[in-house]
Amino acid sequence: MQKIIILDFGSQTTQLIGRRVRELNTFCEILPYNKYPENDADVIGVILSGSPLSVYAEDAFHIDLNRFRGRKPILGICYGAQLISYCNGGKVESAGTREYGRQQLQFIDGNNPLFKGFEAHSQVWMSHGDSITRLPEGAVCIASTQTVRNAAYYIEEACPIFGTQFHPEVYHTLQGTLLLQNFVVDICGSKQEWSAERFVETTVAELQAQLGNDRVILGLSGGVDSSVVAVLLQRAIGDRLTCIFVDHGMLRKNEFRDVMNDYKGLGLNVIGVDASEQFLSDLSGVKEPEQKRKIIGRDFVEVFQEEARKITDAKWLAQGTIYPDRIESLNITGKVIKSHHNVGGLPKEMHLQLCEPIKWLFKDEVRRVGRSLGMPDHLIKRHPFPGPGLAVRILGDITREKISILQEADDIFIRNLREAGLYDEIWQAGAILLSEVRSVGVMGDERTYENPVALRAVTSSDAMTADFAHIPYEVLAKTSNEIINKVKGVNRVCYDISSKPPATIEWE
Ligand code: XMP
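# xanthosine-5'-monophosphate complex -> structure
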């Protein structure tokens, strides 16, 4: 399949470039700046990302452009543009102060294919400390702003090279998507054949070829990623897929029952295992968050393995790993700051081969694929939920009584978000029981001395960063009233207004 390669020099917005290219129904891969693939037959163009570094600094990331120059069209963005310029005899200098924010293009070469359809004075987003003060030989300036002469340039070659000082991938560059479309579709020749339907079609065929008559095991979590993998695999190999859904006793109210019904409705071959006794007894008295996670992780592997062992002829373990779990983002020292995410220590000794059919997808694409597979909306749009479940939302030790209090409060919160039409706008929401804190309240004529519940709702695009959701006061007020009136043991409700970073989404 045709693809664009995005070489990552460590910019905060590299993933955004990837998303924008995918939105143009074009497949792309984001790779560390020095990992351009050996075999690039299906690569139709290369984009070099921005970076917090200076191209002239000692620790700058440099690459050999000749790996693809002359064979693939190139677009350098910010640092990428500076790098191409610098390596070809141009001059890059500190601009003195960092230029950050919206700018208007004062001059645009409307005949250049990169700017096809652009309006005069189009708004762009700048974020740079260095500028290209002299273009390399053969390069022509194709756009300027009031402060930046070489806001974009062009080198005419068998395969053209473009550089933009501004960031087309950022929302504030109003015609940024058009610029990327001009590059990806017109200049690189993308046939725009990447779509959810096409993905399903090719993935099912690939899975059939890869798996043959083998049997596959999949751990389901109730979340969208593993559910989509289940339906894809079922399309490919039918009942040779066995799914295992473990109830550790710390799921949301009625979740085990509802999700099992959903799975059965989808015709999946699912074994539901109620292992809550084991988990809760092993967690008894444990307060320390990391210790809780370790116990849950260990018990999960134990329970999963015990069930999986019964499927004696299984050869594959399928996982719902998605692309953001795997992208290696660079920090400025060149170290990988986000390493390959893997589902915590699942059975290596079982000698199963890994099958990860959605490992190239972003979350919104997983949802599109789910929709195209005919999965119900409430499954597709379900908020992410942590593996250890309510265990990391009960601060303190875990008991059945606390779980049930939190399940009720959480259920009221989520229902109120749905009724207010806010659920789908929010990345993730839930309630947290501060079970080690008690405060005084008054209910009727009675003094109460009970626990508070904190509500957490965030907006995000990938859970790496998040803002608290700006929920209207009326919705918070209604939720708070309902929780305090209906959930015995709770006499106070707070709303968490921290962003991530520095806070995290989960409290533990
Ligand atoms: P944090 O709390 O790190 O969460 O901001 C980021 C995202 O990851 C989820 N999360 C987990 N998911 N096992 C999981 O499967 C875990 O141990 C875990 N901890 C956090 C969290 O719900 C959010 O979506």
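# post-check
The chain is about 30% helix and 25% strand.
Residues 335-344 have pLDDT under 50 and may be disordered.
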